[in-house]
User: Fold this.
Amino acid sequence: MVTRARERVATGPRPGKRPSSALAVITCMDTRVDPLQFFQSRPGDIHAIENAGGLVTGDVIRSLLVSQRYLGTRRVAVVMHTDCGLLGLDDHAEASAIADEAGVEIPFSLGGFGDLHQRLAESVLMVRATPILPHRNDVRGYIYDVETLRLSEVAIG
Assistant:
């Protein structure tokens, strides 16, 4: 795995630390999700901020702040997807099961949600409402369908 990565780096162009498209993409860590492909990008074009579910959390806001304030991003895309592992997850039941198994309570929410469109809207609106972010005017939401391989923009008030 490391050898392949070294070969790619050695033969390809070396991107700068500032994304050339000024786009930050918040998305899920799911292996079927490829933010570079969604926006027809190459390494160096976008900042990809990934976590379980593609949820906007405190740490995502921290990364987005750094991306905007110090590395030049001006636009934000929040991309969630169908068949997400967190869709339908019961946070309370899972947290209880983990606490029983591990003997300690987890200090965070797993982020389970019941409605994909609603959770996407909440995430987009959270970014738009965060006053420490200097660029909140161009924040868009998308849903990626893992079966059809289609990315669709969702209108969010």
Summary: Residues 96 and 127 are 30 Å apart (CA to CA). The two ends are 43 Å apart (CA to CA).
